[in-house]
Amino acid sequence: MESNQAASSMDVDTVPSEVKLLPPKPKFEPLKPHEMSDGQVQFRKVNVPPHRYTPLKKAWMDIYTPIYEQMKIDVRMNLKGRRIELKTRPDTPDISNLQKCADFAHAFMLGFDVIDAIALLRLDELYIESFEIKDVKTLRGDHLSRAIGRLSGKGGKTKFAIENASKTRIVIADTKIHILGSFSNIKIARDSLCSLILGSPAGKVYSKLRAVTARLAERF
């Protein structure tokens, strides 16, 4: 008995241990947008204010073409509900395209030109910031009118100067101000606009802008 056990133990020792092979890594195809939401179609709706209805009619093809052909998103104008409706398609390459298109349409409704708003489709680091004059300082009557005049300048000169210096686009709609640009550039434009609202003369704002843009040029 002892000799048999010794022989069996020797046999076990001499048998080479089998190398354990790991199974191959699974290869999954990337999910399509309609598969991410369990086959449900994603929707977005953008309301059209009354004063932007006529400009939308004129610029409809300029808005429709990049959304449908480049971003692969279905788009239609709901005439009864006065809103733009967007939805994903089976061939939409990226689920984020739907939100980009909604932001693009919303930017046009705020008053930005199509050629400026279309940058939202092509660049990721662009945002829109909105605020009112009363958020900075409570003004009424002629004081409010003068503040709006300071923001625009003669023939829009001040607004264009801020836009060019900060590489942003600005829309002044009554007492509301909308800024389109990158995060750091929006801050530069907002600081300049707030200074004008608080009563700073345009010349002082220009000199501050020159200093800030020179500093930015040195950094990059």
Task: Provide the fold topology.
Layout: H1 2-14, H2 33-36, E1 43-47, H3 53-58, H4 60-70, E2 73-78, E3 83-88, H5 96-110, H6 114-117, H7 119-122, E4 127-132, H8 133-136, H9 142-152, H10 157-166, E5 169-173, E6 176-181, H11 183-197, H12 202-219
Antiparallel strand pairs: 1-3, 2-3, 4-6, 5-6
Count every beta strand, where a strand is a DSSP E run of 2 or more residues: 6
- Evaluate the radius of gyration: 30 Å
Q: Give me the number of helical elements.
A: 12
Oligomer: single chain
How confident is the prediction overall: mean pLDDT?
85
By secondary-structure content and strand pairing, the structural class works out as alpha+beta
Largest sheet: 3 strands, antiparallel
What share of the residues lie within helices? 40-55%
**What share of residues are in beta strands?**
15-25%
Strand order of the largest sheet: 1-3-2
Order of helices and strands: HHEHHEEHHHEHHHEEHH
Distance between the termini: 85 Å
Shape: globular
Residue runs with pLDDT of under 50 for 5 or more positions: none
